[in-house]
Amino acid sequence: MFVFIGDKSAMKPNFLVIGAMKCGTTKLCHLLGQHPDVFMCEPKEPEFFAKDKKYKRGWDWYESLFTAGEGKTAIGEGSVTHTKSLRFPNAASRIVKHLPDAKLI
User: Fold this and answer.
1) Which of 2, 8, 60, 77 is the most buried (most CB within 10 A)?
2) Distance between CA atoms of residues 66 and 104, nearest Å
3) Nearest to 79, CA basis, from 20, 23, 36, 37
4) 15-104: what fold?
5) Mean pLDDT (whole number) for 54-60
6) H or E element: which one contains 40?
7) Domain locations in the chain?
8) Coil, strand, or helix at residue 50?
9) pLDDT band at 64 (very low <50, low <70, confident <90, very high)
10) Residue 32 contacts by C-beta under 8 Å, 6 or more apart in sequence?
11) pTM for this structure?
12) Do 32 and 103 touch, CB atoms closer than 8 A?
């Protein structure tokens, strides 16, 4: 059984898989997505918080990536850009602003 404390009704992720290129985030996201209580969005790397062009699409666009996860206990995404603070300095503060309770893996 997958135990995850979070709001099941919210159509936003309650966890983010962060990492670096070539460190296994794609495999981890794939394996997590195989669990019946877990939803991983498509695309795997929406890069919403890191890339200004994608952030400008707005919260509604980002949230729409998770609508198919309704009823799942754990809803997530994985973007390696979250950890590239020198290249994407706004990513961390945007995550805190929009997902202050999200778990980081």
Assistant:
1) 77
2) 17
3) 20
4) Rossmann fold (3.40.50)
5) 96
6) strand 38-40
7) 15-104
8) coil
9) very high
10) 17, 38, 40, 74, 76
11) 0.85
12) no
